[in-house]
Structures are given as C-alpha cells and as structure tokens.
Amino acid sequence: MATLQASGLTLAYDKVTIVDELSLDIPAGQVSIVVGANGCGKSTLLRALSRLLKPAGGQVLLDGADIHSKPAKEVAKTLGLLPQSPTAPDGITSRELISRGRYPHQGLFKRFSAEDEAAVNRAMELTGTAGLADRPVDELSGGQRQRVWIAMALAQETDLLLLDEPTTFLDVAHQLEVLDVVSELNRTRGITVVIVLHDLNLAARYADYLVALKDGKIYAAGHPTEVVTEKTVKAVFGMPSRVIPDPVAGTPLVLPIGRQRVLRTESVLAANGIFRGDAPVNEPRALAEGLEQDSAVIEEEAQAATRAVAEADPNLARPAREHLQTLAFQTTVLRSQQLSPSFRRLTVGGADLEDFGTNSHPLDMRIKLLLPPEAGFGPNSEIASLRPDALTSPAEQLGWYQRWLAIDPAQRGYMRTYTVRAFREAGHRDNLGTTPELDIDFVLHGKVVDGRLQGGPATEFGDRAQPGDPLLLLGPNKALTDDSYGGIEFRPGAASRIVLAGDETAAPAICAILESLPANVTGHALIEVPETTDILGTTTRSGISVQWLTRGTAEHGSLLRDAVRGAVAIPGAGVVQTTADPEDINVDEDILWETGQAQSAPFYAWIAGEAGTVKELRRYLVRDAGIDRKQVAFMGYWRRGKQEN
Ligand SMILES: Cc1cc2nc3c(=O)[nH]c(=O)nc-3n(C[C@H](O)[C@H](O)[C@H](O)COP(=O)(O)OP(=O)(O)OC[C@H]3O[C@@H](n4cnc5c(N)ncnc54)[C@H](O)[C@@H]3O)c2cc1C
Q1: Is the dihedral of CA 311, 316, 320, 321 positive or negative?
Q2: Does the beta carbon of 418 lie inside 6 Å of ligand 1?
Q3: Cα separation of 295 and 399, whole Å?
Q4: Strand, coil or helix: what is 88?
Q5: pLDDT tens digits for 350-365?
Q6: Is residue 419 in contact with ligand 1, taking CB distance under 6 Å?
Q7: Does domain 497-571+580-638 have CATH number 3.40.190.10?
Q8: Same fold yes or no, 4-256 and 497-571+580-638
Q9: What is the mean pLDDT of residues 208-222?
Q10: How far is the CA of 508 from the centre of ligand 1 (A)?
Q11: Which of 76, 179, 265, 527 gets the most CB atoms within 10 Å of its CB?
C-alpha cells in the first residue's frame, strides 16, 4: 500500500510562508481530513502533497521517495487528486470525463484499451454514476457532478485519493452523498483518502484521522474524539463552542456559541448592505451607470461584505480573502497571441488566481486591469492591501477606491475594464501549468506612429506585453461570491430567445456567453468588427445564429444598428408594448449602463459597445419595438473621444 508523508515541509507563495516546517504521516488505508480556518494553509498543503506545489523547504515523500524526484505521470498512477471546483470542458459527457482519469495509464500512442474501459466502468459503478454516463456534465446537479469527478479520480485506480473541499457549494444532502461515496470506497477498496474540508462536524463524522491546522502548523492531530475539543475549536477557529456527542454518529458535534448577538430582521440587514436582495431595476446597484459607477459598485460590494465583519470588529486585520468580495490578483503574462489584426489575446496566470472566480461560468464577467503609469511605479498600498493574503481590516478598506482615484495618475497608473474571455483552473485539460490562468482579448485601437501602436494605456499594454510581464487585476473572490456577482450582467432569466449585440470590445463577452448557452436557446448574435480578418471562431451548443458584421469604411456602429433592426422587428418579440420614450442620457457626460434582471419573459437582449451606438439601440428597442427594459441590458463599454479613468 502506498505511503505519503510530509517532512519539515515549508510552503510559500512569493515570500509569504503559508505552511511552516510541517511534518505529517498520512495513515495508510484510512480517511484523513484536514480542517482549519480560511487561509490556514490546508489547500496549499494538499497541493504540495499531490506534487502540484514545490516546497520552499522540506519534502513530500511518496513511498519513501521525494515526490518531485518522480515524473508526474508516475505519481499519477499512485495518487489521484480532485482539485477544488474543477471545471469540465463544455458539452463533455460523464463517461468522457471519467475516461480522462485513464490518461496516466496510456502511453504516447496507446489507444483506450479494454483494461481502461473496465476501470472506467468500475469507477462508475462504485460512485453510482453509470446512469449518468451519457449525460453532459454541465447538465448534472452539483452532487451528481461531484460524484462524476470523483469517478474520474477513481478511474485513475490509485492507492491514494486526495480531495480538496469536495463538498463546497453543495447542499447538505449532496455533501453527505459525496462523503458517503468516499468513505465506502475507503472501506471496500482500502484506498487511503486525504480530504480538505471546511465543515468541522462533517469532518469529525467521516475522519479516522483529523488534522487541525492553524497558521500553517499542525495544532492537533489524531482521532476526532481527541482533536475536537472546545479548546481546539477556540484556538483553531477563534470560536467559543460547546462540544457534545453527535446523537446520530456518536462523534463530537460542535455547537458554536457565536457572539450572542440579537437577531435582526432581514430588512435591517439589507438596509446595511449585508444581504443583497433582488434589487428592482431602478435601484442604484442595478443601475450602475457608467464606468465610474461600475467601479463604485465594486467598492460598494467590497464594503457590503466588509460591513458585517466591521460591525464585529472593524479594526481586526485578517487576510483580505476572508472578508473582501473583490480582490487584487497579481498575475504574470504567460502568452501573447495575435488572434487577428484587431485582437490580441493575453493569457495570464499565477497562484493568486486560486482565489479568483464565482464558482460558475464567467459569462460576461468584467475585471479591472491596473496598468502601471508611464514611469512604471509598482502598485500603491491601496491596491496591494486587496491581495488575497494581505492583512487588512474592514475599516482600512472603506473608501479605498476614492483614495486610489485621488492619487495622481502619474503615480497610481490607470484602471481599465475588460472581460474574462476564459478561465481555466490548474488541472483543466488546456492548462498545463500549476496555477489557474485566464484569457483577456484586447482590441488594439489607436494609430500606429513610427511603427508603434498609440492608443490608451490598456491597448498599449495589450499590444506590448511579453511573457513574464506582471499584470495586476481586480476581480471576484471565489470564497465570497457566487453567480449573483455584480460583475456579471448577462441575466436572461427564463428567456429562450436571445439577442446578443455588440462591437469588437463586446466580442470577448459575446463569445464567452455563447459557449455557456444551452441547446434550447435560439436567437441572434450580432458582432461588428473592423475587418473581415477579425472574424473569430465561436462555439455554441445553442440554436443562436452568429453573424459577424465587418465594418470596413462604414461608420462605427451603423452595421450593428441595421442588423438589430433586422433581428428585432416592430413590435418586438416578448414585447410589453410600452412605447415609452427612455429618458435621455448624455453619453458624453454620463455613461449608459442599464441592466435588469430578466424575469419570465421569453425574450432577452444584451447590448454592449460604443455608448453612442448603444444609446441609439436602446431608443429603438424600448421606444420603437416596445421591449420591456427589464428584458434588456444596455451597456456603454466605451465612449468615443473619452478615456476611462
Ligand atoms: C464591462 C466591460 C467589458 C469590456 N471588455 C473589453 C474586452 O474584453 N476587450 C476590449 O478590448 N475592451 C473591452 N472593454 C472596453 C475597454 O474597457 C475600453 O475600450 C477602454 O477604454 C480601453 O482602454 P484604453 O486604455 O485602451 O483606452 P482609453 O485610455 O480608455 O481611451 C483612449 C481613447 O481611445 C478611445 N477608445 C477606447 N476604446 C476604443 C475602441 N475599442 N476603439 C476605438 N477607440 C477607443 C477612447 O474614446 C479615447 O479617446 C470593456 C468595457 C467594459 C465596460
């Protein structure tokens, strides 16, 4: 039976030590569960145990030998890892995904053998996923999907199975379903299991060996009845509690005492911005007009999240990832690819991105790029304090954006809004690196002077960036956001007929949205780009017809306006027949940003691009075609002659 040990292990990102000289013997044939507060280093430890992270000191020993002395493929025959929130390629079926677990057993030219087939069938039987074999993974429930991922790790047929938070974002029934499958595998097949789990009570129920981590060191380890004590819970989670025997399992059950605060009604919490309700369309958050307000929304959300903590102790410094919804991610340019004359794709990656995302498809997720000023100063302290590991208090964060804005641009640099064209976790089939990576598609606008493109700061960065260059960006904190994240505007509700329309700056968002749409959606995607050679490949399973409009010498937006009129006749589909004249917006002063949560209507439109064009389309769709404004998102992505900030 394979053995796994950590010996004097030190793990660090940049110069920040996360795990400090830790030694651990994983008991063979048992279920070990690692628990600890957010940021204590438990996922980092698991990554090192699975060979994904190279230690700064010490060793991980697999069968007595340094795991890094063995080739990855050999390790993969002994040890299977299920990372946190893995993403499956769009449209892949359960059987196809599970079959990928066989890769370590296949030679360069070896085909899928009868032995591979048998291993896949065994894994499906053990996890109860045979009935899901032909179903697309992205159509399964959270619990089913997680069982399919476990089956993939099992098909690898390893002695050791490592699972990073396999129950995150599942409801309680599905959490139990997943842990039951894993513990049954351990009992029936003798597989050694190591799990990182955030739920202490479930950990106490399922673990044979429980490891409580605190600040990167083992605080206590042993049988749950030895480890789960009121003293350990207080020390490790900073939480007073009572520990009683679990009446169902007999294992220790932790009852948090909390701070004995008076219960308040949801409306009071909502008024304080702690809960985000379903804001009606004309409330400030939904009407985040313009890019400045868009940035204000980021700050407002960050503040909303911090306020809850601030009430308890506003001055308590904690890692930013524990209380800020929006974090600053330090990344490095990995690749630069010219997609067409007008589009350049930068792929950036880095360990910070492990905290990035909303645990859902990015859709039209926006991020903010922090571009250095001409003189190239580093990020200022306002932004540095938003890094995931930065120790900061909620009080310190209030008003950070206004303070940042007040700094001279020559010192602070520039902030620009871009779309996440694609995000790939480490372990994704198209990500060969050890950290997550994301693609940003830059439109290269401006003029070429003396052989150099002169546009705005973002365009010049996109044009010139080389692999190895740093890029700082602001985006969602995976631990504190979900698919209701304010940086995603594509909210079609139950609509089955959709129009997506935009210029080249909206092409990355439209292409990403198209990849996510299910087969039962029909409609039109209309994308205006400068040249025929700028027509990019798009994939969609939906019935949406994609039309690329090439501008050539025509006026910017004119082809898009005509095409939208062609696609949405008067009266429009899903019409409410308001014939309301939308109030005028001065797109040179304010920025057009009107997004609503679509409801049950069958039609939804998403319109983005140059603000003047979007304004005209808004007038047409709302006044002439009579479409309900709740069913349309109108977004001025940029304004001719106007810089972002
Ligand atoms: C939610 C959202 C998502 C976005 N996603 C993307 C994306 O994925 N890819 C992308 O390329 N852009 C995207 N944009 C648009 C991008 O933010 C703007 O084009 C931005 O102004 C570019 O910054 P810059 O530093 O190059 O130019 P700025 O310094 O802001 O502007 C300099 C000058 O260039 C002009 N200008 C700006 N953009 C263009 C353009 N596209 N064509 C012609 N002239 C222009 C301005 O009017 C100004 O006169 C997005 C915008 C939003 C709000």
Answers
A1: negative
A2: yes
A3: 12
A4: coil
A5: 999 999 998 778 899 9
A6: yes
A7: no
A8: yes
A9: 95
A10: 13
A11: 527
Query: Ligand 1: does its nearest atom lie under 6 Å from the Cβ of 416?
Result: yes
pLDDT band at 574 (very low <50, low <70, confident <90, very high): low
Which of 505, 511, 588 maximizes ligand 1 atoms within 8 Å of its Cβ, making it the mutation to test the pocket? 505
Q: Where are the domains of the chain?
A: 4-256, 318-476, 497-571+580-638
Q: Which CATH architecture has domain 318-476?
A: Beta Barrel (2.40)
For 482-522, give the secondary structure using H, E and C.
CCCCCCCCCCCCCCCEEEEEECHHHHHHHHHHHHHCCCCCE
What DSSP character marks residue 157? -
Sign of CA dihedral 138, 139, 142, 144: negative
- Using an 8 Å Cβ cutoff, are 498 and 521 in contact? yes
Answer whether 190's CB lies under 8 Å from 29's CB: yes
Superfamily of 4-256 according to CATH: P-loop containing nucleotide triphosphate hydrolases (3.40.50.300)
Query: Does the CB atom of residue 441 touch ligand 1 within 6 A?
Result: yes
pLDDT at 616 > cutoff 70: yes
- CA 482, 484, 486, 491 dihedral sign is positive
Beta strands in 249-365 (DSSP E): 252-256, 318-319, 326-338, 343-349
Q: Which two tokens stand for residue 127?
A: 């996890």
Contacts of 259 (CB under 8 A, 6+ apart): 312
Determine which residue's CA is closest to atom 3 belonging to ligand 1. Answer: 418
Give Cα separations from 197 to 33, 124, 251, 377 (angstroms): 7, 24, 16, 40
Cα–Cα distance, 352 to 365 (Å, whole number): 18
**Single-letter amino acid code for the residue at 604:** Y
Measured in Å, residue 594 CA sits from the centre of ligand 1 at 18
Is residue 210 within a helix (H) or strand (E), and if so which, with residue range? strand 209-214
Question: Tens digits of per-residue pLDDT, 408-431?
Answer: 888 889 999 999 999 998 777 788
Q: What is the mean pLDDT of the chain?
A: 85
Indicate the pTM of the whole model: 0.60
Is residue 88 within 8 Å of residue 46, measured between CB atoms? Answer: no
Is 612's C-beta closer than 6 angstroms to any atom of ligand 1? Answer: no
b/e code 95-112 from CB counts within 10 Å (16+ = b): bbbbbbbbebbeeeeeee
